[in-house]
Amino acid sequence: MNVIIMGCSRVGAELAGMLDAEGHKVTILDIEPYSFRRLSPTFKGVAIVGNGLEADSLKKAGIEEADVFISATQGDNRNVMACQIAKHIYKVPKIVSRIYDPIRAEMYQGLGIDGVSTTQVVAQLLKERVLG
Q1: What is the value of pTM for the model shown?
Q2: 38, 73 in Cβ contact below 8 A?
Q3: Which of 89, 104, 127, 132 is the most exposed place for a label (fewest CB within 10 A)?
Q4: Of the ranges 18-27, 29-38, 40-49, 120-129, which one carries the lowest mean pLDDT score?
Q5: Based on the structure, what is the number of domains in the chain?
């Protein structure tokens, strides 16, 4: 699979490492070059400094050949905008977004964006730990 990840946060870097280790072609995009320090030393993918909301950066990342686009920044609005661009302009087949706000997660689902609300996931895991 050819995967583009927008956002080299802890989550983005971890995901990039996991997918890379499984043999997928991974490109990770971030506006801050210092964020790439989070990538594993064994990461064989491509790290590009750029804005995932801009056509030049997306094209440099290979958006036109991408099978999957994942937005993993810390901003819900930024994530949904990037996913909409990838989905509607570049016709990327699979779009997934990190979403903090559980209320927004439902709205994004209605827009055809497969979202993962980290708030809901962590809350559920904590509840399971507490209740056994």
Answers
A1: 0.92
A2: no
A3: 132
A4: 120-129
A5: 1
